[in-house]
Amino acid sequence: MVKNQQFNKNLLHWHRTDNKRSMPWKGEKEPYKIWLSEIILQQTRVEQGTQYFNAIVTKYPNICSLAEAQDDDVFSLWQGLGYYNRCRNMLYTARFVCTELKGQFPDTFESILSLKGVGEYTAAAIASFAFKLPRAVVDGNVIRIISRLYASDTNPYTSLGKRWYQEKAQELLSISYPDEYNQAIMDLGATVCTPANPQCDRCPVSAHCEAYASGHQQLYPPKKKKVTLKHRFFHFVLFETTKEIYAVKRTQKDIWNNLYTPYLIESDSDVPPPEMDHLGLQQIHTMQQSLSHQRIHFHFYRHPSGKLLPHTYEQLVAIPKKSISSHAFPRSILVLFKKIAYL
Ligand code: SF4
């Protein structure tokens, strides 16, 4: 049984004296910067997210400067981070806070949670870091620690299981120092109570850990069942002149919404679809990329230059090759542009 008071004391003491994990936004009190860092970190590791955080904060030092930015400028700063819905929601929220809330970031858990793109974890992080509100963060790191502390095989992927972890996290939270506590438990998960080989001999809460006491740390948390990947086959046709390439801005509800790509035909196999037969295309590159639930098979073809573009491709817009980098393309398309020396 975890004794909350002593558990808190040990964890906070470690945080104040021995926690060496550094991040540019650590200790930050400005809600805008905390929110921004949490949005970036939703599906990105700290090492990769740091340069993006610095670039966005330098260009847009406050929420209203971000709200007033052009979409394309922000998307091109975001380029490479993936999961572009985050960027869209970030812009929506910046504009909402700047216009509807007159630039005043909401300061209650519920109002933070109601912002677009903000879930329970992000709302708890912002509420505790910026406003010292007693809300426990629960992410993969926290779930792993709690599962080990209680030697519990409660499944965190069911709604009942999620609630159990949420309740335990809330019970353990330091009400007096929720900001430090949340940072400490996240850092403990990232540096000490790691998924493989937890360093229990230097863990500040080992005296409270049932998994450690039984020597069965590796059994916790219970493993997630493997998801079946959906395979998608994307055939891209690169229409170009000497100075321009032609691209489509994607607007459908799918990956890469609002980003540019070369003309795309999706099919159900690696074989080019029949409507490409008459185009006389030359295949220039293939690659694959795994996203969370899908595996994309890319095939890139070049359209012979000098030919008129068929009118059916009227949604194509011309982009000067020298300004490709100021347009938002998915990372995998940029890999192709680098390969064929457009970047
Ligand atoms: Fe994790 Fe080991 Fe600490 Fe338990 S004792 S919380 S398993 S690092």
Q: Could you characterize the architecture of this molecule?
A:
The chain is 40% helix and 13% strand. The longest helix is centred in the N-terminal third of the chain and has 16 residues, at 85-100. The chain has helices at residues 4-17, 31-41, 46-59, 63-67, 71-78, 85-100, 109-113, 120-131, 140-149, 159-172, 178-191, 210-214, 331-339; strands spanning 230-238, 244-249, 260-261, 263-267, 282-290, 294-302, 317-320. 32% of the residues are buried. A 4-stranded mixed sheet has the order 4-1-6-5, with no helix packed on it. A 3-stranded antiparallel sheet has the order 3-2-7, with no helix packed on it. Strand 5 and strand 6 (294-302) form a beta hairpin. The model has no long low-confidence stretch (mean pLDDT 91). It has 13 helices and 7 strands. The protein has 343 residues and is α+β, with helices and mostly antiparallel strands. Bound molecules: iron/sulfur cluster.
